């Protein structure tokens, strides 16, 4: 009885596995004469035409290269020099209402863990308030704090600390 049962299970597994196999389909031509990849149905890339990339995914755009706002020691007041970055990010997000990001507050290593987490949260929330001036909705931004847990500079000097007192705009990768 158990041999029959084992044979039945083996045969069933074999049928299921063979049904799941795929074969490589050849390139076909659609009615317009353009080559398509028959596995996806999408037109094959045309040489000389660059794909459209969202600004936040384009590594050369200002939205990608200017993703941090810096703060003075023990402060969560946005500095005037950060206004253009916030304005650019705010206008971009307002134009992409379905796009949601994290606004990540950070602090330098000075201060206790709880204090730095609270300060990072205040910094993130200050930036979120500034983004809302440009029409960004609550559902598009999530303020979070990492305190001093995500430093970008590892030194123990004023220059390193200044780089770590920041808020970063964290966009989705896709």
Radius of gyration, taken over Cα atoms and rounded to an integer in Å: 26 Å
* Quaternary: single chain
CATH architecture of the domain at 67-170: 2-Layer Sandwich
Enumerate the spans where pLDDT stays under 50 for 5 or more consecutive residues.
Answer: 13-38
Structural class given helices, strands, pairing? alpha+beta
Top-tier CATH class of the domain at 67-170: Alpha Beta
Q: How many β-strand stretches?
A: 6
Biggest sheet layout: 4 strands, mixed
CATH topology of the domain at 67-170: 60s Ribosomal Protein L30, Chain: A
Shape: globular
CATH superfamily heading of the domain at 67-170 = OmpA-like domain
- What number is the mean pLDDT? 80
Return the string of H and E elements.
Answer: HEEHEHEHEHE
Structure report:
With 174 residues, the chain is an alpha+beta fold. It has a domain of 104 residues: OmpA-like domain (60s Ribosomal Protein L30, Chain: A, 2-Layer Sandwich). 36% of the residues lie in helices and 14% in strands. The protein contains 5 helices and 6 strands. The strands form 2 sheets. The chain has a 4-stranded mixed β-sheet. Helix 3 crosses helix 4. It is globular.
Topology of this structure?
Blueprint: H1 2-20, E1 28-29, E2 35-36, H2 62-65, E3 68-70, H3 83-95, E4 101-106, H4 113-132, E5 141-147, H5 158-164, E6 166-170
Helix pairs in contact: 3-4
Question: Characteristics of this structure?
Answer:
174 residues; alpha+beta; 60s Ribosomal Protein L30, Chain: A; four-stranded mixed sheet; two-stranded antiparallel sheet; 6 strands
